[in-house]
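Question (not urgent): is this output format expected?
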Amino acid sequence: MAFEAAIPPDNYDMGPPAAEPGSPAHQTNQPLAAAGVGGRRKPGAMATLTKRLRVGDEEVKRLEEEGKNAIKLADKPVVADKYRRYKNKIVVQPGSLDAPPVRKLIEAVQEWLNEVLAERRILLRDFFEDFSDGQILTELLEELTGSNETRESALALSEGDQRVKLSRVIEYVNRQLRIFDDEAKWSVDALYHKDPIATLHLLVALSRLFEAPVELPRNVRIRALRMEEVDGKIIHEEIVEEITGGDDGFGNRIPDKDVFDRLFEQAPDKLQAVENSLLTFANKHLAKVNVEVVDVGTQFHDGVNLIHLMCLLERYCLPFCSYNIRPKNLDQKLKNATVALALMADAGVPLPAIKPDDIVHKDLKSTLRVLYGVYSKFKFYKS
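Got this back:
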């Protein structure tokens, strides 16, 4: 204790005993004691000790005060200080981004983005940092749309320039999505401050708009805090932010996983057997027009063989003017695939929600679903 330090120990050297007043020694030492070194009075041992104790007490009080302040700060939410700079924001709770569904969503979107940006020699490294200045978003939109409407001549280096660039990019994105600014779940402020929720909302919306060939996990939610300043105080409320729901973002419900989803995920070794069975069925009928298919993924993608198969099974001939017998471009292939799906629908073929683009882009899973639907309808057909 401080008070115990004030009592000198038994072996403490207090110096020579003080001379009696009026003695020769007292008279001899008085001028020296009065003058000391440099003309100043030399403090005694007790005065020096008292001064040290006073400084020590002040240091102890200062450290105690710092400790109390540290405890008070530790008791407050860490996010509060960060968000005093801008009010009414949402901040992710620690560990929420590491949840398996969230990580799977981030990986799926990042895989698609890196594939698109590879043409421009751009590789995403920090998923949220890389979109905070609008530069990579500009490159992404140019690659996806072929338009340079968001391109600016000068590189945005200052905060003001980066905010202007982000504003132009977000305005363009919202027009593409046909939503008003107040409907968007992202903003200039949120992207500039690397808000993970706003960034994910934006990138998921873009992946759906441009039909990214990746499967986004459904019902992905992130735990967060809604921060709000009221009467000078930061208050927070726990919320759960939904990033992907049970639909595709445009009101269309995503179907539950079917047998082909499970086949691709859980039993890829059995995939070839299923493919061979469907090929045998198709070739049995296409042989009548001297056609043999050996690759499901590539020989149905232009729609011609699907149209021929339906004509053979339904016993009618479709005029050549109704489709392109030798399609040369994407539009002609899309038209053929659309005609083939329409013929199947008219025949009552049970099909899931398959788009012509899925077939044209050689999506094996979609092509197998189409062939399986035709097989289910006509498996007892006798030629």
